[in-house]
Amino acid sequence: IVISYQGDGDLAAIGTAEILHAANRGENITVFFINNAIYGMTGGQMAPTTIVGQKTTTTPYGRRPQNEGYPVKIAELISQLEAPVYVERVALFDNKHRAKARMAVRKAIKNQVDNLGFSLVEVLSPCPSGWKMDPVDAMHWIEEEMVKVFPLGVYKDITKEVEPYHIEEFKPEAEEIKELLDLKTESKSFARSTVPEKYKNPEIKIAGF
Length: 209
Known about the structure:
Elements: E1 3-7, H1 8-14, H2 16-25, E2 30-35, H3 65-68, H4 74-79, E3 86-91, H5 95-113, E4 119-124, H6 128-131, H7 135-149, E5 153-157, H8 174-180, H9 185-194
Parallel strand pairs: 1-2, 2-4, 3-4
Antiparallel strand pairs: 3-5
Helix pairs in contact: 1-2
C-alpha cells in the first residue's frame, strides 16, 4: 500500500509535474493533499493555494491575481485527467465534515487495495499559526472563506465503472534484450576496441520512467 501525504508546496508547487504524470499514468496509489493555503512549515509564505487577498509573509498586502496569479485548484485539475478513478475535496471544520473526510480516506485506500488505480483526497485543513488566528477562528475561516474558493465534494468517481488491473512484470533474458534492440554480437567487441585507453572502465547508466 503506497500512501502519499503531501502539502501545498510539495504537491502543488515543486511536485506539480510529478503528481500530474503519476495521476495521468493511473498509478495505483493513494494521495492525500493537505490544503491549508500557506507554507505552514517554512515560515508562512504564499503557497499555490493561497487565496486572493490572503496575507502571507511574501504577500503582506494580500495575494493579487495580476501579480501572483490565482490559487491552483488541485481537485479540479486532477479530475480532468482520464486515468484517476476517485477525486474528492473534504474539510475538517466540524464533526460532520470530519466524518465525511474519514469516509473519503477509507474509500481512497480501498480503491488501491482493489487495484482500481489512482485516488486523490484534498483536505482543507487549518494552519492557525501561519494564519495568525486561534484554532477556533481558523476553523471558521475554512468554512467561511476557503470553501468559497475550493468547493467541497466529489469531483470524480468512476470506481464502479473500472475493472481492477494488474501490471505484468517484464523480465527479458539477455539474449531477448539483444534481439529486441537488434544488437549484433560483434558490436560489443567493436565498442571495446574503440574505447581510448585512458577510459579504463567505460560504463553508461540509463535511468528514468
